[in-house]
Amino acid sequence: MTPALAQTSAGKAPAPPSYRHLPANADTVRWGCFSTTLTPRVEIDSAGIVTIETLPHPAADDLERMVQGDEGAESVYLWTTDRKGVDRRGAGSTDPAVCKVGSADGRGVHILTGPVHGWGAKPGDVLELRILDCVPRPGANPDFAGKSFGSNAASWWGCHYNDMPGGAKREVITIYRVDATGDKSRAKAVCNFRWGPQTDPFRVTRPTIDYPGGPIDHALTDFTFNVLKGIRIPIRPHFGTLGVAPAEADFVDSVPPSHTRGNVDKWPIGKGAIMYSPVSVEGALVSVGDPHASQGDSELCGTAIECSLAGTFQSILHKKADLAGTPLQEMDRPMLETRVEWVVHGFSGPNHLGALGATAQADIYGKPSVDDAMRDAFAKMRRFLMTTKGLTEDDAHSPMSVGVDFGITPVADGNWGVHAIVPCHRAMPS
C-alpha cells in the first residue's frame, strides 16, 4: 500500500485492480437520499477502481448550458406534465396525500450516483476511498462544445438571506463557465438572474428555490450579462456529498451530514484525497454527488459552483478483525486525509439519526449549533491524536491548541459542522 494513514495490509502482494465505469443517468442515480433499499449499480472489490459520473442538482438553472445534449442528464432532468425522469426526490413519503412540496416531501436535494457495492464490506469494517482523479465534465450542447458550466445560488437557506441591509430578501443565481484546460484553472461568471416565482410542470408554484429540478421559464427572469467583471474564481473540483449508507433508516435525507459522512461540503474532498468511513451496512453502499467546481469553507450563500464532475476512485477495505493496533481501530467517524493534512469533522449532531429518534431527519434542522460542532470536533481530534500518535489525555490538549486549525464546515446543511486540521505529508497513492 501507500504511506497513507492506515497500513493494515502491509506485506500483502497486491492483485491487479479491477475497473468499472458508472455513468450518470435516470437508472444509476437517485435524487436526495442515501438508501439501503436500492440495488447496487456496480460492485467493486478491495483495491478496485471505479469512475463515477455525477450531476449537479441545480442544473435546471440553465438547462441550455448544463443539460441539453447530454443524454444521461436529460433522462434525469426529464419533467413533463405526465412524469419525472427520477420520481422520488428526498427521503420522505411518496404518498401524494402527505407530501408537502413534492414527491418524497422535498427532504433531500442532491443527485447521487450509485450505490456502489464494496465486495466483502461488513458493519464494523472501515472503507478507505482514494480519489485518484476529479475533473469537470464538458457539456454536450453543440452550441457550447467542450465547455463546462456551473450554477451558484445565493438562496433562502444561505446564512446571508436574513441579514441583508434593509431586510431585503432575494435569491440570485449566477452561472459560471468552468475552465480546467489551462495552467491556471478558473471559473468566470457568464450571467446572473434573480429567482422569481416559477410554476413547475405539475402546476405547483414555487416562490423560492425549494425543489431543484424544475425547468425555469426564463421569460419570468431577467438575465444580466457581463457580471463580476475582472473576477476569476480558482477552481478546486471536489464532491460535496460522498459517503456510505447509514443503517438507521431505509431512506436518509442527503442534506445533513452524519457519522457515515454524506454531505460534508469540504473542498479538499477532491483529487489526491483519501476518505475513511466506518461501514454501517453490508457492501458499504457508496454514493457520490453534489459535484462542485469551487467552494469556500462555510458555503455561506447556500451552494457552491455546482458543476458536473467525473471522479475516479479506488476502494480499499480494512476488515474489522485487522484493525486492532492500527490507527483505524477506533474509526467510528468520517475522516479525510490529503497530501498535507488530516481533517476530522465535527457536527452539531454527530449521529443525529441514532440520537434523535424517529423524527431525526426533520428535527436536526432545528438544532444547528457551531458550539456543539466545535465540541464534537474537539472530542474527535482528541481521540485522533491519542489513537494515531499515542498521546495521553494530558498530552493531547496542548497540540490541539497550538498545532490544530479549527474551521467552519458548511452552515447550510442543517447539521452544522466544524473541521479540525492537522498538518501531515505523504506521497500520492500508487
From TrEMBL:
<feature type="compositionally biased region" description="Polar residues">
    <location>
        <begin position="1"/>
        <end position="10"/>
    </location>
</feature>
<dbReference type="Pfam" id="PF03069">
    <property type="entry name" value="FmdA_AmdA"/>
</dbReference>
<feature type="region of interest" description="Disordered">
    <location>
        <begin position="1"/>
        <end position="22"/>
    </location>
</feature>
<dbReference type="InterPro" id="IPR004304">
    <property type="entry name" value="FmdA_AmdA"/>
</dbReference>
<protein>
    <submittedName>
        <fullName>Acetamidase/formamidase family protein</fullName>
    </submittedName>
</protein>
